[in-house]
Amino acid sequence: MSVTSSTALDSQLTTTWGPTNSYPDGPLVMSGYTSRLWPHESQPQFWSKYQVWEWLQQVLDIHQIDASSIPFQNFDMDGHQLCSLSYQDFIRAAGSLGPILFHSITELKWSGQYHVEIGQLDLKPELDYSCPFPDVSFPPGEIYDPSLHSLAPVASPTPSSPDIKRSFSRPHQVKKHNPRGTHLWEFIRDILLNPERNPGLIKWEDRTEGVFRFLKSEAVAQLWGKKKNNNSMTYEKLSRAMRYYYKREILERVDGRRLVYKFGRNARGWRESEK
DNA sequence: AGGATATTTCCTGATT
DNA sequence: CAATCAGGAAATATCC
């Protein structure tokens, strides 16, 4: 397990990751975090609420399940609590997705080292979970506080074993046709919903109304591009995609204010209470 | 294989 | 002036 990548952070901090694909394919995957992980961070029972949240995101992502299809508030707990849930608890908390989550956490509980050598579940090697939203556009010098990393290390826990994938009863209706995972609006929403990982990229203007504003438009575009394995993404292009959402009412128009958008009636999972 | 969906890419023109 | 906003058109990438 070439935990190498030591300098992954450095490169991320600088600006790099965008250019050439930092994600060829193959085992590589696990990034620099691995080496920075504290033993606790690799053991679910010691996870913070945030890490639990992150684990959820990863499992959903790997299974290409829409993030809005699970009641996140049911998992507003730390790792200790999470680990004490029974299979039935998972069913109650996540319905048909319960088995998947249960299996994942069970695996993790049994292997505090899951993050090592997992690089090749037959899943795409595209997991960029380990990226704590490096802020690309930052001009050299003003990188985002490295201390943030200590908050979101976990990252690498690529939900363990390959068999997790399909082993359990395949809940039906679990995923639709996504042009490669998450939709743009969901990607944006998730950044918004995860302040710890949002080093000033996007900010809520009006939380209850669903109004938000891009603070670092190009950085967000770079991140989006990274997720789509497209290093030439720009805000110009990303915004075109955003504008298409108006018609579908996933976004509502907010004119006059530059870089400001608002979630529409067809955007789900962004409200504090909802879902 | 082919259509549908969701962007991505490009572009011209208007605003801020 | 540079950055955005607006959309139309056409090209792509995935999905099913």
Descriptive overview:
Belongs to the ETS family. With 275 residues, the chain is mainly alpha-helical. It has two domains: 8-167, DNA polymerase, domain 1 (Orthogonal Bundle); 184-263, Arc Repressor Mutant, subunit A. The chain has helices at residues 8-14, 33-36, 49-62, 79-83, 87-94, 98-110, 164-167, 184-192, 217-227, 235-248; strands at residues 202-206, 211-214, 251-252, 260-263. The longest helix is centred in the first third of the chain and has 14 residues, at 49-62. The chain is elongated, with a radius of gyration of 18 Å.
Structure characteristics:
single chain, mainly alpha, DNA polymerase, domain 1, Arc Repressor Mutant, subunit A, four-stranded antiparallel beta sheet, elongated, disordered N terminus, DNA-binding
